Amino acid sequence: EAVARAVIEKLATPNQWGLLLRAAFHDAGAGPDGLASTSYPAGSLPVGGADGSLRHELHWDSNAGVVGVWPTMVLAKKVLDAKFGNGTFSWADVIAIGGAAGVKAAGGPAMSVGYGRVVALAADPRTGPATDPSHAKDFTAPALLAAFAGFGVPPDATVTLMGAHTMGLAMLTGGSEGPLGPPKFTNFFYAAILAGKGSFAVD
């Protein structure tokens, strides 16, 4: 796993570190673990959660921000398949390890997320917290907390998840989307929001 994380860290640019984390969240957030659904092809496992289904969901509006890092993920998968054999690291593994690689590259902690995940053969049902079909939908803070609470995510964890935007793009005052700060894993997002630099209702 450490080698896989290092491979992804080496391939990704600083501007992609936040996108790696976003990709991991959007892959895991498309459906709760163990969710059974008829949308999966016959013979596939309805795994939900961190299952690699993201590669079938790149056309979703909510995943527009992930597209920019996808070529790097494809290259990382090819490198790992060549080094360890096809199937050692599944797509679900590469995406999850990529999220951990983005955090570490940006100065955050080194996290072990493991590997050996089962891979979905189709898109997950649009039932998770990362599947907003409008992409531009705004939430009030109570509505956001309620939405995540429905998936078992408590308020403190939801606030922590929002803080990951310090590494990526966020809506700035004036309605433009751009980086809030340098691609580093810091508390910059929270400081910027307290300074009135966000423009979403949830901010």
What does this entry look like structurally?
This protein is an all-alpha fold. The chain is built from seven helices and two strands, in the order ααααααββα. Strands 1-2 form a two-stranded antiparallel ribbon. A hairpin with a 5-residue loop joins β1 (169-171) and β2. α1 packs across α3, α1 (2-11) crosses α4 (91-105) and α2 crosses α4 (91-105). The longest helix is centred in the middle third of the chain and has 15 residues, at 70-84. The chain is globular. Residues 32-46 have low confidence and may be disordered.
Average per-residue pLDDT, rounded, comes to 77
Q: What is the strand tally?
A: 2
Oligomer: single chain
Strand order of the largest sheet: 1-2
From the alpha carbons, calculate the radius of gyration and give it in angstroms: 17 Å
Low-pLDDT segments: 32-46
State the helicity in percent bands: 25-40%
Protein structure class: mainly alpha
Distance between the termini: 36 Å
Main pleated-sheet profile: 2 strands, antiparallel
Q: What best-fitting shape do the alpha-carbon axes yield?
A: globular
Number of distinct helices: 7
* Residue fraction in strands: under 5%
Order of helices and strands: HHHHHHEEH
Quick overview:
Helices cover 38% and strands 3% of the residues. The protein has 203 residues and is mainly alpha-helical. The longest helix is centred in the middle third of the chain and has 15 residues, at 70-84.
